[in-house]
Design goal:
Elements: E1 2-7, H1 11-22, E2 27-33, H2 36-46, E3 50-54, H3 62-71, E4 79-84, H4 90-98, E5 102-105, H5 110-121, H6 129-141, H7 157-167, H8 172-179, H9 183-197, H10 202-212
Parallel strand pairs: 1-2, 1-3, 3-4, 4-5
GO molecular function: DNA binding
Domain HTH luxR-type: 148-213
Protein name: Transcriptional regulatory protein LiaR
Length: 220
């Protein structure tokens, strides 16, 4: 059973998402909150698998709530998915850096929404190729400062290749095909790279790949 926490200051939004989730046999909404502070308390109480958090809320916004969840060892198993009205913007990028596993635009179709919840529960990032392209466009138009790549030196050649392909939006199966390895081996390379780079998940791995200079927009 996938346990979900809903955090949004708009009751209609929460009730709409809950109505969809309550129809699924493998998903349970364990709690709802109207702001990030309350959401953090309920996350500690219920330990959900997925926390769907609105990015703009009073008291404690979605970015700060994400940052606090990511920093709390007790909540290490909680996968935060940011909810936004606007698609990819600076707030979403900040949320990815803070530890979010990905984001959803609120006008998403129900089938994609339910699929996204299940993807997040598995620990995979919600970074489809189309979203990765938006990330790339963001770096083209407004590049971020490049950070020292010391941690990158710890990666093996295969791990670096896997990170580059993750940043290009490829799935584990696609990476396996490209590198002529098994999907399990591809996942192992990616997990080891995340550990070495201290990335919480694939979403942060993508951001780190661009910020470190391992991948540049012209490479994609």
């Amino acid at each position: 059973m996938i346990r979900v926490l809903l955090v949004d200051d708009q009751p209609l939004i929460r009730s709409g998402f809950r109505a969809l989730l309550d129809l699924e046999d493998d998903i349970e909404v364990v709690a709802e909150a109207a702001d990030g502070g309350e959401g953090l308390e309920l996350a500690r109480e219920h330990l959900p698998d997925v926390a769907l958090i609105d990015i703009q809320m009073p008291v404690v916004d979605g970015i700060e709530a994400t940052r606090r969840i990511a920093a709390d060892p007790v909540l290490a198993g909680v996968h935060v998915v940011i909810l936004t009205n606007y698609g990819l913007d600076e707030y979403v990028l900040d949320a990815l850096r803070a530890g979010a596993a990905g984001f959803l635009v609120k006008d998403i179709v129900p089938e994609d929404f339910l699929h996204a919840v299940r993807v997040a529960a598995r620990g995979d990032a919600l970074l489809a190729p189309s979203i990765t392209r938006k990330l790339i466009n963001r770096y083209v138009t407004q590049p971020l400062p490049t950070h020292p790549g010391t941690a990158l030196e710890e990666l093996t050649g295969r791990e670096r290749e896997a990170v580059v392909l993750v940043a290009r939006g490829l799935s584990n199966d696609e990476i396996a095909d490209r590198l002529v390895i098994s999907p399990l081996t591809a996942k192992t390379h990616i997990n080891r790279a995340m550990t070495k780079l201290r990335a919480r998940d694939r979403a942060q791995l993508v951001v780190l790949a661009y910020e470190s200079g391992l991948v540049t927009p012209r490479d994609s």
